From TrEMBL:
<keyword id="KW-0479">Metal-binding</keyword>
<keyword id="KW-0378">Hydrolase</keyword>
<protein>
    <submittedName>
        <fullName>SPEB protein</fullName>
    </submittedName>
</protein>
<dbReference type="InterPro" id="IPR006035">
    <property type="entry name" value="Ureohydrolase"/>
</dbReference>
<dbReference type="InterPro" id="IPR020855">
    <property type="entry name" value="Ureohydrolase_Mn_BS"/>
</dbReference>
<dbReference type="Pfam" id="PF00491">
    <property type="entry name" value="Arginase"/>
</dbReference>
<dbReference type="InterPro" id="IPR023696">
    <property type="entry name" value="Ureohydrolase_dom_sf"/>
</dbReference>
<comment type="similarity">
    <text>Belongs to the arginase family. Agmatinase subfamily.</text>
</comment>
<dbReference type="GO" id="GO:0033389">
    <property type="term" value="P:putrescine biosynthetic process from arginine, via agmatine"/>
</dbReference>
<dbReference type="GO" id="GO:0008783">
    <property type="term" value="F:agmatinase activity"/>
</dbReference>
<dbReference type="GO" id="GO:0046872">
    <property type="term" value="F:metal ion binding"/>
</dbReference>
Amino acid sequence: GGDHTITYPILQAVAEKHGPLGLVHVDAHTDTGDKALGEKIYHGTPFRRCVEEGLLDCSRVVQIGIRGSCYDPDPYKYCRDQGFRVVLAEECWGKSLLPLMGEVRKQMGDKPMYISFDIDGLDPAYAPGTGTPEIAGLTPAQALEIIRGCKGLNIVGCDLVEVAPMYDVSGNTALLGANLLFEMLCVLPGVKTM
């Protein structure tokens, strides 16, 4: 729950204990803006603030499902300049993400990492209940491949953000969000699943 701003203080606390973290970030947006309406902290800036504070091991940051409205001719330059791997949604269309997650697993290694999942990473056909929906997103099956693909990694925390149930009269977004959170709990270290 909450918007993506909540990830910033969570990562401050987790990095204080574990040091700079790897990050699997699923989202339609990079959330690396600098300011909005003069404010440096809002749901579109958390990962820039995290970089500035040294909370992330930028060589182990992967952003998956990125797409949508842009205000810059090279909207992913900041991320790539930091060393992030940016996986655009169009690179995911119509295929399994198991090969991608094999690469992500190697990139994360055995060091501490965090999963941050914005529900708008999914296509609004599946999850319309969010404040900034963007067409042509990931499927629920791909979301499961990403989360389950993190099993066995040194996950020290996770979140699922930007669910806004009032924008979805069907309740499907909340149902999907709850199930994705359950899946994240199942891949935490030490959790036994069948």
